[in-house]
Amino acid sequence: MNNYKKIWGYLKKNKIYFLIILVLFIISILIGFLFPVFFVEFIKKFILELADKTKNMNFFQLLIFILENNLTTAFFGMLLGVFFGIFPLLLVIFNGYVLGFVSNKTVGLLGFNVLFKLIPHGIFELPALVLSLGLGLKLGMFIFSKNKKKYLYENFENSLRIFIYVILPLLIIAGIIETGLIFVLG
Question: Alpha-carbon distance 5 to 111, whole Å?
């Protein structure tokens, strides 16, 4: 229980970093949806490679693949934020743009109702992404601290606590839902 009190206090105190990530994510989604003209070939290749990697996987293989991918993205998005917060910013912009781009193409083929299929796992995955990248952005601010080593240590400790007790469970739930939806809906 003590961990969750520390987590909640830390999150409240640093909400600006999560808000910055959330706003950038929403803007990137909108740009990707309204202007799906950037990096078209790269995104298509990325999606085709992803589909090819996962096409013959059973439920548990796909679940492990999704969890591994999401956990790696979230963890390194957080950890590599130490480099002045640049990596989390790039990651949120890229992920937002790709989500908007894919949403645009999917809506064009299947209509707006298809977006509702994203909601069940997005409820868990998107907060985990925003939290991990916000933590990464916060870590990158050590450069402005008087006691850089202490700042970095304390913020990394809090970030790791949040990763283990909040982000990890959110991504496990999201992965189970996403895998289930893929097998049920195709």
Answer: 43
